[in-house]
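The data are set out underneath:

___
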Amino acid sequence: MQEKRVVYSANSLTLLQKINFMKAVVIGEPSDATMETIMSVYPRHKAVADKFINNGDVIGMGPFVGGGNMAIFKTREAAERFVKEDPFILEGLVKSFVIRDWKDELLPG
């Protein structure tokens, strides 16, 4: 039996890095919602977040000190699904958000 060797070029390694290491980050800006309003919506937000966490889609999620929030997803598709379901976003507690592709070169997908 002959041994098979796989040789990667610089271009194929770059493609493998993009496939395996590209993440998506959702960065949200806070609204002027009161803490009372935020806490009334929080259980529904947590249920959605837990669903994505339990599916293995989330790497990290939480607020910034001083306002705003961030969530890191393993794929852009997961990030896009999340923003369509999250009550904080749908009900205006997050005033605006952006999804940014992140070329993480340390953590595998």
